[in-house]
Write a structure and sequence with these properties.
CATH topology of the largest domain: Double Stranded RNA Binding Domain
Strand order of the largest sheet: 2-1-3
CATH architecture of the largest domain: 2-Layer Sandwich
Number of strands: 5
Helix content: 25-40%
Largest sheet: 3 strands, antiparallel
Structural class: alpha+beta
Number of domains: 2
CATH class of the largest domain: Alpha Beta
Order of helices and strands: HEEHEHEE
Length: 95
C-alpha cells in the first residue's frame, strides 16, 4: 500500500515471540495467547499447552489476535468490573 503518491510501501512489523525475546532470542511469533496477552513461537506455544496451569488457555494465530489497543481496553474494562453490595456486577468506568 503506497502512501499519498509516494512509492514507499509500509510493511506490517514482524511479531516476535515474547518468551524467546525475553531470553534474548528473536524468533518469529505465530501464535497469540489471549489469556496471557503474549505472542509466541510454535515451540513456546506447544510448551504452554502442556503446562498444568496454562493448558486450558486459548491460542490463536497472531493474525487473529486482537490489536494492542484492544488488549489495553479489555484490561481496563476487567479492572473496572466490581461487585456491588447486593452481589451484582457493576461497571465502573476508569479514566
Amino acid at each position: 500500500m503506497a502512501t499519498h503518491g509516494s512509492d514507499e510501501v509500509k510493511l506490517a512489523p514482524l511479531e516476535l515471540c515474547d518468551p524467546c525475546f525475553s531470553n534474548c532470542k528473536e524468533i518469529l511469533a505465530v501464535l497469540y495467547r489471549l489469556d496471557c496477552d503474549e505472542k509466541c513461537c510454535e515451540v513456546c506455544g506447544t510448551c504452554h499447552t502442556k503446562c498444568k496451569l496454562s493448558k486450558d488457555h486459548k491460542l490463536s494465530t497472531v493474525a487473529e489476535g486482537p490489536s494492542s489497543n484492544v488488549v489495553k481496553l479489555l484490561k481496563k474494562t476487567q479492572k473496572s468490573i466490581v461487585h456491588n453490595r447486593r452481589g451484582f456486577l457493576q461497571f465502573v468506568p476508569i479514566f
